[in-house]
Amino acid sequence: MEKIFKGMDNGPDVINGNFNELSDPKRDVTVNDLTVNGQLTIAPNQKNYSKTITDNNGLQFTINRIGNIVFAFFSGNPTATGSNVLLATVPAGYRPISNNYFIVEGIWDNLMTFLVTTGGQVMTGTHGSSNGGERGVQGSSVWITQDDFPE
């Protein structure tokens, strides 16, 4: 951007050049402070990918991906017991960039841990176990993925 001042010889050309620079789609803009009065729309064309996984261990997973963030919600009555038991597999496109441990709450307030590995395996955690189908569980987790977008 070129400064415009009164009496400059090439004022119309500078104004035209400034407008061309502002309308360039490759223009990089840095905003230090932003106040929004109304609605702010960010990446309006960003796609939401969603998948529901029903496993044979009594759990149902619903996973949503927006950008590189994955939101997972699950519930059910796991039939597997013990630590490090494979419960389900998260498909490519939704897998975390690092192992993701999270706490799971049972209906009767029992707590356990689940793990989602970088390979997508959903397992009972090493310091907890599923409850053998005696009580339902539910939980949610959020992680970052670097997988290619699912198709």
From TrEMBL:
Annotated spans, Disordered: 125-151
Protein name: Uncharacterized protein
Natural source organism: Fructobacillus papyriferae
Lineage, opening ranks: Bacteria, Bacillati, Bacillota, Bacilli, Lactobacillales
